[in-house]
Design brief:
The complex is a heterodimer of chains A (380) and B (328). Chain A contains 13 helices and eleven strands. Chain A is of the alpha/beta class. In chain A, the strands form three sheets. In chain A, strands 1-7-4-2-3 form a five-stranded mixed β-sheet, with helices on both faces. Chain A is globular, with a radius of gyration of 19 Å. Chain B is globular and about 55 Å long. In chain B, the strands form four sheets. Chain B has a five-stranded mixed β-sheet. In chain B, strands 13-12-11-14-15 form a five-stranded antiparallel β-sheet. The chains are: A alpha/beta (380), B alpha+beta (328). At the A-B interface, helix 4, helix 5 and strand 5 of A face strand 11, strand 12 and strand 13 of B.
Amino acid sequence: MGAGHTRFGVLEAGPRALLRTAVDGAFASVDHGGERKDLGEAFLATLGFGGWQLGNSAAVLVEEAARVGLPTTRIENACASGGFALRAGVRAVERGDVDLVLVAGLEKMTDVGSARRRYWLGVSGDTEWERLAGLTFAGVYGLIASEYVERYPRAREALAEVASKNHENGTRNPNAHFQKRVSREAVLEAPRVADPLGLYDCCPVSDGAAALLLAPVEHAHRYTDTPVFVDGLGAGSDRLAVQERPELTRFEATRSAGRQAFEDAGIGSSQVQFLEVHDCFTIAELLALEDLGFAEPGGAVDLTLSGVTRATGRLPVNPDGGLKSKGHPIGATGVSQAYEIFLQLRAEAGARQVPGAEVALAHNVGGAGATAAVSIFSRG
Amino acid sequence: MAIGFERGAVYLPPFTWDGRPTLGPDEDAFTMAVGAIEALPGRSDLPVKTRVHLVGDFPPVMEWALPEYLGRPVDLARHGGGALGLLSALREAASANSDRPYLVLAVDLGGPMGARSAALEFGSQPVPHAPEWTAVDGIEGAAALAGAVLVRAGSQPEPKPVGPDAGPPWAVERAAAFSQTPPVQVSEGAYVPRARYLENLPSRWRLEADRCAACDHLTFPRRGWCRSCGRSDRLSTTMLPRDGARVVAATVLSKGGQPTEFDPQVEALGPYGVVLAELVPGVRLTLQVSDARPGEVRIGDRIGTRLRRLYPMEGEWRYGRKAVPLRA
């Protein structure tokens, strides 16, 4: 029914202000007016980065939504918190006993120091083995990328294209953390962080929040003439440590979540017109294209290099800039993907509008693939 | 029961400095002793001797770490370093406990001969032609003893340095300072509570896995139940091979890519490699790379694993296995 979004980036605003801005935006976007009294339940997606309010943070959401007293729950699956909160919100709507459900995602990441920040960036991976070997998520995705690049040598260029494309898209998104173009050459020449991944292969550390308002389909037209429908939901999981998985370059959590979502929506991948995928590192976008069935193993390289996934291509991927350029406030990301799809399917995306978009898919990954949520949307 | 020399090995750090073997920045007397134990020829299992004589400058951590590593309680006797220490250890072992098998671990961390360690096992199945223990002189003597006997027993060539002579791939002064870094007290990085670190030691240090007789699946790290069929009643413990793992994926963590615990290491030594290696089919392990230049270990390489210092935490060094290149 409605969706709101703050700017993503290094922001002055604290977590409460971010939540308030996103929730106010969501209510303001409801065409026929959204009444806060209609809210029946609220879900907050957040990791609790920095430890500002680790426990009971969902209570802060209903405070900032001016609906203290509502049932409210924090959903935490690391970077996939938003996708899973959307899922929880849809399930609550399906139960049929509430008129309106609020799903918000939040992360305030830049108000802690560098050492503490890197601690929090590491808390969602396997700590006992990967972390003790000296890996962060950049390192884990670096390992994944190393095997992928070894197998498909042109992948280095495709990784650079992912970064360059998503930065290009970000220049058309006023909410994006980065609004600057980055050439493939600059990506390839940037300092390495976790070889073969360099600085421009990694998403930034951003503050931000996003919010959605969900209602049962039969009440949709009470709120708006152009609702966006959630047609399919899927979610999956995998072993936390990548060393315990038989394959490094495919995420089983994404594959099973994708299969469920397509089955739930009753459509195939050819009917999807654009994607919001979880590109926390450039390699993740290539894996997503393959795991979601848009390319064979290794096929994401050609698909990407051929320009198909650009804003002007046949299958735009991350028209809002993706995590790479828009930013990745952990809990907010999955909700932000749905926000973008909400705008696009209602033809409200302005300069970055995907022409004639009617069906879109959002893909949200927790950590290095331990959890994943996939959702399919259509224009009402 | 006659007790005699059974087997012995010398461990030399892989790099030389100023012409002498020099400790790596993640090595200490404990890891050097383990290096010698793991170089013991003939059998891949660990010594079962319950009496252990320590010769040289061993840290207090040996009191719990050595029994933990060997997987059994041991009775530790300490001796001073060098020739006198070794003689004293052997004399005490031979006279006071003449019918009791024992293990001697000796270490020199520097000095004129450079860094080295030795593991010598004495028991009821001595090798023929073993030299008299009274001829042993210091760690060098131990090295000679081990080397001579090994050569004569024909089981393994004399141990020798495996690294290039060009010097170590790190800045020696900074590495020395790093090795002396007082262990940090508060975590802002890769925090693993001490209890969870201890719980995993059999898998982390000895590469123990559980094989399930019901489905033949190997579970690593050990979890107490079979990861494939879920049964816990048909498990037997096995040690995975320490050497020969194949590198499946390899990355290099540069400044800013490391967890906070590794900040002092990166400051002192620069970027480090991390690999995912397949120990045996179906068992993979994430390992930091040591004894190598960043990027030297590549996908497809065979690596060895060695017990080393990982990082300091809550007042002590934490130890685990690292990957090292297997040099010809």
